[in-house]
Structure formats: C-alpha cells, structure tokens
Amino acid sequence: MTAGPTLLGYVDPLSVAAGDEVRLMVSATSGYQVELVRLVHGADDPRGPGVREERVGIPFETRAGRVQPLRPGSYLRAPAHPSLDIGAFTVTAWITPTMPAGGKPRAVIARRDATGRRGWALGLTGDDRLAAWAGGGAEPVAATGTAIPPGRWTFVAASFGPQGVTLVQVPVPEWPVGSWRASAAASGGVDASATGIPLQIGAWWTDAATAGACFNGRIDRPTIRAGTADEAALATAAPERLGLPVLARWRPGQDAGGVMVPDAGPHGLTAEAVNTPVRGVPGANWTGREIDFRLAPDEYDAIHVHDDDLTDAGWEPQVTLRLPDDLRSGAYAFRLRAGDESLSIPFFVRPPRGTTTSRVAVLLPTFTYLAYANSHTNLEKLGPDGLDYPTTEQHQWSAVHKVCSLYDFHRDGSGCYYASRLRPLTTLTPDYISSFGPWNLSADLCLLDWLEHEGIGYDVVCDDDLHAEGVAALAGYDVVLTGSHPEYYTAPMLDAHEAYLAGGGRVMYLGGNGFYWVTGVSPQQPHVIEIRRAHTGTRGWEVPPGETHLSTTGEAGGLWRHRGRAPQRHVGVGFAAQGGRGKGRPYSPAPPAGDERGAFALSGVDGLIEADALVSGGAAGMEVDRVDAALGSPPHTVVLATADGFSDAYQLAVEEVFQSNSRLGGTVEPRVRADLAFFEYPNGGAVFSTGSIAWCTALGAKGYANPVAQVTGNVLRRFLDPAPLEPRNATRGER
C-alpha cells in the first residue's frame, strides 16, 4: 500500500472501558502527531452548533511513518504434512469462477512457495483455462484449450506423477462419461516436490494472499488423493470411483460457522479460513431440497472466495494506551496529523467495568457503523437523485482498494456478507457527511451534543457490549436512548432490549429504520458481523438461492419482521418509507381525544413539531417509521403526532408491496408517514419512539430552541422521574 492518503488507521477494540487498553493501528507514509479528543459534535453545518470537541491532556510522542500493507483476499490455509510429500498424487475439486481471471493466473489449490520456484498448483490461466504448475517458472506445465465458463459448476482434476500431468475439466450438468470435456497432458515428468510448504485453497502463496493472486469464485470439496489416474477415469467427475486413497478432503459444510475447515482425511489437516471466505453456500451437488445448510451439510461443502475480502488487516499497533480510570464515558477519537492532512479514528469509552456514572445510557449503533463503513457504491455511480456524493481521500482510497461495506458488491458482483472493525473504516469519522447530511456517528453526535448542552449526564454503551453482555450491559440505567439509525440487531440484542423493558427500563428510540436486519456475530471472531440480505427488504443486493442462513450463527437472515420480531413489537414503530434527498416533514400533534397518556411529551409545544434538521431539513425525514398493529405495535400504543404529506421521493417500503403499483409515493400512500409513539410496559417500563433518522440532527437547530429539542427534553425528564406512568391494561384498554 504505497498510493493513497498519508494516514490510515483503525482501533481495537471499538468499545473500551475506562481503565482498559485501546490499541491504535496506523499506516503512514510520513511522521505524524497523535492527540486524544473527546467528540461532542462533528458536523460543520451553519444550521447547527458546528464542530465541538475537547482535547484530553494525554501526551504522545511524534510517531515515525510506517506503511503497513493490506493483504485482501480470502482463502484456506492448511499445514504442511509428510503425507502430501509424495511423487504421485491427484487433486480434484468442483469450481465456479464468478468473474474472469483478468489476465492474472488464479490458484484453486496450491502448494507453491512465495518465490514460485518450488511446489505445484492447480488453477486458471489469465485467460481462464485450467492449468497446472510444477517446479520453477511462471508458465504452466499443462493447460486445457477451453476456458472454464463463469457462473456454472465445473469438475476439475489434475494427476501429478513421474510421467507428467494429466488435466481434465468436465461441466457438471453434462455428466457422466461421454459428455464434452477438455483435457491436457504434460509428458516427460515434472518436479512437483513441495516438502514443508503449506497448502492453500483459493490463493497462491504460503505467507499471505495479495490482491490479484486470489481466486474469485466457489470451490467445493477440494481433495488430494495418493496416486494418479488416466484421463478417462478422471473424466467421470466422480472421484470416489477412482479407487485412490484420500490424503485430505476439506469439508466447508461441516462446522460452517467456524474459523477452521475440517479435513475428512486420515491426517486431520484442518485448514484455517483467512479473511472469512463465505461459508454456508450451496455446492455443486445442491438439490434445493434444503435451504438451511445445517440440515444438508453435504450439499453445502463449498466456500466462496474473493480477492477483495478483508476482515483482519493484521496491522501492528503503533499506540497502546491504557485509559485513565476516571476518563469520562463518551465518544473519543485519536486525531492524527501529518502536514496538512488530518484523520480522526473514533472509539467509545464506557465507565470502568461493573460501574455506571449516569442514569442515562446512549446506545450507540456500532454494528450499523460497521455495516456502512467504507461504502463505496455511491462513489462508483451517481445516486438515483443524480447528485454527486461528497467524500474524503481516505474514502476514495477504500473505493479504489475495494474495501467493502455491507452495502457494496465484491468485484465479482456478489454481495458483501461480512464486515469487520479490524481494518480501516474510512466513513466512521465524526465529520462524515453522506449525500443526505450527517450520517451514523456524525448524526449521533448531534444527540450527544444536545445532552451536553442540556447538562444531562450520560454513559455510552455500544452494540458490541449489548450483544456480548445482554441486558447486563444496561443494568443500572433508568433510561436508554438509541442513536439515529440502529438498523442492525442480533438476536441477543433484541432479547436484552425486551428484558430491559420488562424489568422496568425506559427506552427512547430516537431514530428511523431501526431493528431491521437480522445480524450475526462470529463467536470465534467477535470483530466480524454478518448479514444475508434475503429476498425482500430495502436492499442493494440479495443473496442467491440457498444462502439465506447466516454462516456465523446458522439462523435465518433477512428482516426481523419475517422472523416474527418486527420493530413495531419492540418500539411501537417500524420502517415505512425511504426518501433519499426528499424534503423532510413536520409532525402534527394528534393525541387521541380523551387520552392524556403521553401528553407530557408535547408540553410547551404550540403547533407543529418542526426544525431545520441537518438531514432532510425536517423533523421527520430520510427514513421514517410508523405504528402498525398488524406488525406488532402494542394495542395500547398512543400516536402523539404524525408526519405525513411527504413527496413521492418517499416510497413505501418494498417489503410491503405485493404487486406493481404506481401509487406508493408519499403524496398518495397513507402508510408513508412517521409516527411519534408512546406506550408503557409493566413494572414501570416505557417506550417513546420518533420514527425518523432526521430527528437527532434537528436537536441543535436554532440554538437548541426548537420543538424537536423540547419534546426530547420533555420525554427524557419524565422518563427519569421514577413516578409510575400509569400503564393502561393492554387487553381491556383500561388504566
């Protein structure tokens, strides 16, 4: 990595308790300075309070520049073993290339040293022909004359022996013997000795894959057998009939959620999955009878590898800092400076373990931050509104290097299933502005800034904490406030949310399109989250058939509403419409006649609930949520106010559209609205929901003197009051 910005970096962990260590990984082309700042407000927009932050008096020495390379590309790495050091052996697999090789040879299975002078490989030439390499030299010793087509399964085999190499490729749908096939042979003997060299599946070298060296596609049941076979035997595409003893056979369908891929051979050559190749994908023998890989593991014995996968950059820390025990909870950043270039790398500080310092917790949606981090789709094409998207040099770098977000496509056109915090996160900055305005962290800082302005103490808790600790992460807090867009939720997080409310907790959902996508966290790699965008929902891509289940947890992916846990069940409102750059709208107060429940929220508000939000320019905007009893809104939910009358830039959520319809826009579809909702839980619990991504970004408008800030303050003060909220009987509608 020699081109691009001067500074790149990331932290580990993203959420850290005061008194614990945080590590800063940096790649820099020159020397740089480091300082620690507490983030309060990040957006430099004249409609808001502007950039607000506090320097923390911790001195750092100037750091010397050090470039740390990225090594993208996923593959399997198995250890060297004497059983493989034989003079005659046969390699087989089923493969589906998902994009052309692009002029660079790609390895399917290889034991080849980094110099390319020793070992062997089975792979594709730069023009997509099956080929074998052995000994020194960059040219293959044998290659077929016909390119392997992308997007379809092909059986490939190579026998290496004293007499040479025999290659065969057979298109899977044209089995058995007698079908069209391509073959090639190299006579005269080859030197395929690879003693001491590990084996890799999907990449060339033994140390780490580099961009361009990895295969793009699917590899099913890669196997090595002792001995050789002739062309006719190999062309049966049924290796179990070869009569050759198995030395190693890797089974990705077994323990598909793990970091390791088991070997069904006699020597237990378990392979490590590097950079998280996709597991839980159908193999060449998939029948379609099961779509849950756990129920048919033999039909899911494939991996999908990409040359742009990256879930652990593996950089060495350049700063290791033990935080002071008394460091105030909040959002922080390492600020790096090199000449005129500056980079902020945020992280989040909780109180010391086992303690709280406030009655209020702000639950920052770090999984949403990871899902969006490095999104480069908007840099590669104009949005539907035809407008350019602002960005930074670091963000442009992530697009060039294809460091994917969960909104992007891999280079081969498949959707990105995994995201990780152990790599540069170029859009996770306090001042990041999307085409819509402040987004994710920069929008959530508007909430922290308002709390600071109001003098309300708070602690921060992150999605990482809620997932790992459950309801214990919220213990001791009377009120929990969400960020502007808590879209990605795991099952343990939903369980914790429900338990917190059932125990008397009070939640203020201050966002829109929350609690939406089923999200998984790898038990072995907690820095990795996973989603599978199934066959409905507002999505930039969707999974192919048979891939709806998360490899990390085994559960069905897609929307929580299709798992019976729609957002309305949790916070009363759920995703209704998305408006992009469409203008936001005010809320019109409309509490039910004769029902004073929740009236405290509107105290002091005369007329519309409106403000010039930094996103969409209105209190309700960008993405909005509504109450819907059919989706689980509790029957005693009170709609305090409604924002409607949106333009047709706001379209009804696609998961609610059953047939093509030209009347789905905000001007004609009554379900395109945002509802301000309130309801009580037993034991003193309660929920207040705004149903708008724009809401938090309106808090600082007009010097914090606006109806959005007024309503938010009314609710927070009442929720902090331990007095009962007089819950209504949810069944009989009585107090």
Widest sheet, order of strands: 11-10-9-8-15-6-19-18
Report the uncertain regions.
175-179, 207-212, 379-389, 729-735
Q: Classify the secondary structure makeup into a structural class.
A: mainly beta
Helix content: 10-25%
Anisotropy-based shape: elongated
Task: Please explain how this structure is put together.
The structure is a single chain. The chain contains nine helices and 42 strands. By secondary structure, the chain is mostly beta strands. Residues 175-179, 207-212, 379-389 and 729-735 have low confidence and may be disordered.
Summarize this structure briefly.
With 735 residues, the chain is mainly beta. The chain contains 9 helices and 42 strands. The longest helix has 14 residues, at 441-454.
Which key terms come to mind for this protein?
735 residues; mainly beta; eight-stranded antiparallel sheet; 9 helices; 29% strand; elongated; disordered C terminus
Secondary structure topology:
Blueprint lengths: L6 E6 L2 E3 L3 E8 L4 E9 L10 E5 L18 E4 L10 E9 L8 E7 L6 E6 L4 E6 L7 E6 L6 E8 L2 E8 L10 E6 L11 E3 L15 E10 L4 H4 L11 E4 L10 E2 L9 E4 L3 E4 L20 E4 L11 E6 L7 E9 L2 E10 L9 E5 L1 H7 L4 H4 L12 H8 L17 E3 L12 E2 L2 E2 L2 H14 L4 E4 H7 L9 E4 L5 E2 L1 H12 L3 E4 L7 E2 L1 E2 L6 E3 L36 H5 L1 E6 L9 E2 L33 E5 L10 E6 L7 E2 L21 E7 L5 E4 L17 H14 L15
Parallel strand pairs: 2-24, 25-29, 25-30, 30-32, 31-33, 32-42
Antiparallel strand pairs: 1-3, 3-22, 4-5, 4-23, 6-15, 6-19, 7-12, 7-16, 8-9, 8-15, 9-10, 10-11, 12-13, 13-14, 16-17, 16-21, 18-19, 20-21, 23-24, 26-35, 27-28, 34-35, 36-38, 36-40, 37-39, 39-41, 41-42
Helix pairs in contact: 6-7
